[in-house]
């Protein structure tokens, strides 16, 4: 829509601005190629960016929601992006800005975004959890090594392992460590060593390189293979600043191949010194113990019972003899007393015996039914009674009864 105007009939500024806004609004959405030169992160849902043309010296202010930026992945300043934008005019100050509806990172940034998405996926599955990490063996019987053939990484690992532990055994599986077939080649080497029951630990080593050079070590298949391996795995890929995803699932990440060698085997010099120190401490402990035992033995030897072992027995023997004499005397005295008591008791029993009574001229009378006759009324005239004497018995006939009056005064 065009506006007519002249010095005599000028258009109001607001109408002109609204006309421009209407015209810009009809432009609709458009995809643009640009470079991010600034990102202003805020706590609210709307974020602010500055786009710049990659060739011409032109820039524009852009707004985007947090969801759009998060979906794009890492966005370092200077990233090349392809953005779906919509132009907007703010009538208050007649400024032009753009709203970003979709954002895609190109070049290295695109790779970073893709890797970030894979990281989030694997992290959600728990593959990076610390409890999955396994401890390395103290002294591995056989070390598996996956690396490029004749590479600096191979030389660094082998040299430092043998320098630290000359008796170490290394089984190397060479692999392609860069390029299209790299991930597949490394996976084959790792799988072969992991299936070898003699291998106690595996090192995956490669020197430094660009993001693209190390891309195969972020391959999802390789990452999952390492995460599920039976054997503990140490990764030594790139330098300290490089961090392929396989580092996050490995049991231990070494900053360099040399560092990996230090992690998988002890230093024989330090171990020898440690053994010597332990041997010395053991020797001192044994000497201290022997000294203590010798002192205790001397104390025992100085005791009277060990100086003259028979003295204690003699004293106890004399006491035993004395006690035996006392016991014999006590037994004899008791026997004599009991014998006298017994004789007295026998005399008393004999004195009270019916036989003694009969010997003194008395008799025991019973009737024909052997009932005791102790009173005149116990029989009658003409009855036959028997009299038991000390030396025999008599049969008697009762011919007379005379009852004696007994006074109870």
From TrEMBL:
* Keywords, sorted A to Z: Cytoplasm, Exonuclease, Hydrolase, Nuclease
Pinpoint the OB-fold nucleic acid binding domain residues. Answer: 28-103
The record's subunit annotation is: Heterooligomer composed of large and small subunits.
Describe the reaction catalysed, as an equation.
Exonucleolytic cleavage in either 5'- to 3'- or 3'- to 5'-direction to yield nucleoside 5'-phosphates
* EC number per UniProt: 3.1.11.6
Q: Where is the protein localized?
A: Cytoplasm
Any single Pfam family the record assigns to this protein = tRNA_anti_2
Enzyme class comes to hydrolase
User: Would you identify the family this protein belongs to, as annotated?
Assistant: Belongs to the XseA family.
Annotated HAMAP family: Exonuc_7_L
Q: Which residues form the Exonuclease VII large subunit C-terminal domain?
A: 127-304, 315-395
Q: Which InterPro entries match?
A: Exonuc_VII_L (IPR003753), Exonuc_VII_lsu_C (IPR020579), OB-fold_nuc-bd_dom (IPR025824)
Annotated coiled-coil positions are none
- Single GO cellular component term: exodeoxyribonuclease VII complex
Q: Does the keyword Cell cycle apply?
A: no
Q: What does this protein do?
A: Bidirectionally degrades single-stranded DNA into large acid-insoluble oligonucleotides, which are then degraded further into small acid-soluble oligonucleotides.
Q: What is this protein called?
A: Exodeoxyribonuclease 7 large subunit
Q: Which GO terms describe its biological process?
A: DNA catabolic process
Q: What is its main location?
A: cytoplasm
